[in-house]
TrEMBL record:
Motif 'HIGH' region boundaries: 10-18
EC number(s) reported in the record: 6.1.1.2
Primary localization class, coarse: cytoplasm
Recorded catalytic activity of this chain's protein: tRNA(Trp) + L-tryptophan + ATP = L-tryptophyl-tRNA(Trp) + AMP + diphosphate + H(+)
Domain of life, per lineage: Bacteria
Name of the protein in question: Tryptophan--tRNA ligase
Entire protein: shown range: 8 to 340 of 438
Cellular compartment(s): Cytoplasm
Amino acid sequence: SLRVLTGITTTGTPHLGNYVGAIRPAVAASRSANVQSFYFLADYHALIKCDEPSRIQRSTLEIAATWLAAGLDPERVLFYRQSDIPEIPELTWLLTCVTGKGLLNRAHAYKASVDKNLAAGHDPDADVTAGLFMYPVLMGADILMFKAHKVPVGRDQIQHIEMARDMAQSFNHLYGEHFVLPEAAIEESVATLPGLDGRKMSKSYDNTIALFAPREQMRKQIAGIVTDSRAPGEPKSTEGSALFQIYQAFASTEETAALAKAYAEGIAWGDAKQLLFERIDREIAPMRAHYESLVNDPARIENTLRAGAARARELSSAFIAELRQAVGLRNLG
Ligand code: TYM
């Protein structure tokens, strides 16, 4: 059967970009026959960006509640916390030893930090931790551990999945065919959802719309989407309109065509924002109540995650034994 895997870093509150780029397609995929799904909370990855323990814990709870509220069925899907699987850091080391340093030098996130430091006249690696540099290897271990074929993600993660493929190929070349070569699964229409300011919606740009903010708060956030200064009655352009792109990520083809027509006819920005709010709310509202009850029941979430980790470890412990043997390490009894 086809194996689908994806994770979300536990550094903040889930936003619409996480939902349309990863959560919604992943939950949909998990419902098809002949698919085995692996969805997890990337809390080891969170340590790279966040040194506040309470924030990591809160985010883990919120992201777990989000997956469940969005319809993930923990009986059907392997749903777990990355740090509950000790075989993942172990595999990270095995992969580290077959990964060229030059490959990691080319990672976008690392390069962005280097460029920022150089632009500020600092040492290129000034504030760069070895964790940031190694980020793609840890992610490679996440993916390769469970032999995932497809990884549903937004466009910003494609390079990481290509690197995981490279690592799998290097390892297979040296030690035999142990790893499956993974592929990114990208929904073109939502591959990069823009945020309030039109740049990619991202925790690091502080331009996000929270997925499960209370209704009135979501309306206010949507009212904050940047638009141009065209007055009511003046035709609007859909090209480069963040509001239009976000609408498209939630609406049917017919609804999107109707909004394009309204743009051409000069809809007021305030009215367009109200339409967007109503369209998103129609999809989110039924999940919101469920989310709130889950987030207020941490014990239930904890039990679900532990049960998921126990199932995932049946696979990971058997596989790491195979890999240890392949590279010539003694197997722990
Ligand atoms: P993270 O936590 O930054 O984002 C989680 C998922 O949301 C997608 N996403 C978006 N999609 C469309 N438009 C946006 N504006 C947007 N913002 C975020 C991301 O592409 C991602 O799919 N390294 C990963 C987490 C991770 C992972 C993995 C993913 C760790 N191990 C293994 C897949 C497989 C990350 O930081 O995603």
